[in-house]
């Protein structure tokens, strides 16, 4: 019986860790971008959660057009980014600058500096939805 309980506990931990790390998969596949998830919590709005992560880009690296199932609040920790929100002019932000990206709005980011650039991203998103939806994925689903 104890062996079964240990196995069940191990399986539960693997699934819990997997659901926390799932948003990292898209970033992990791209060379030159690293992501560290800092926290994830339910919030007072039913069906929503907040996720906070730092994302580092090597010089010249870009992450293409994508969206999130909720808002993203960006604080640039170091370096220089160019952010492009679909339908708007690009903006260049440096350490200490902030940016708000509305729910579902396609956007992209690029490190335009000579050194590593790091942002602190805080997401307020629908719980259980895929955190990062690439624009090409949205086309393939008919959206």
Protein architecture, described:
The protein has 143 residues and is an alpha+beta fold. It has one domain (23-140): Sandwich (Jelly Rolls), CATH 2.60.120.10. Helix content is 22%, strand content 46%. The protein is built from 3 helices and 10 strands, in the order ααββββββββββα. The chain has helices spanning 2-21, 24-28, 135-140; strands at 33-42, 48-57, 62-67, 70-78, 80-85, 91-94, 98-101, 107-111, 117-126, 133-134. It has a 5-stranded antiparallel sheet with strand order 1-2-9-4-7. A hairpin with a 5-residue loop joins strand 1 (33-42) and strand 2.
CATH architecture label name: Sandwich
Tell me the Rg in angstroms.
17 Å
Q: Largest sheet at a glance?
A: 5 strands, antiparallel
Task: Give, in order, the helices and strands.
Answer: HHEEEEEEEEEEH
* Continuous helix count: 3
**What is the class in the CATH system?**
Mainly Beta
């Amino acid at each position: 019986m104890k062996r079964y309980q240990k196995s069940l506990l191990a399986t539960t931990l693997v699934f819990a860790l997997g659901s926390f790390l799932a948003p990292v998969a898209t970033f992990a596949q791209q060379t030159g971008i690293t992501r560290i998830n800092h926290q994830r919590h339910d919030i007072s709005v039913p069906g929503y959660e907040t996720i906070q992560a730092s994302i580092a880009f090597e010089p010249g690296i870009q992450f293409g057009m994508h969206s999130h199932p909720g808002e993203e609040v960006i604080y640039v920790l170091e370096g220089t980014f160019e952010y492009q929100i679909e339908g708007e002019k690009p903006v260049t932000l440096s350490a200490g600058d902030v940016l708000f990206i509305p729910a579902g709005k396609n956007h992209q980011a690029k490190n335009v500096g000579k050194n590593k650039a790091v942002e602190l991203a805080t997401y307020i998103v629908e719980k259980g939805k895929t955190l990062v939806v690439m624009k090409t994925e949205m086309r393939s689903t008919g959206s």
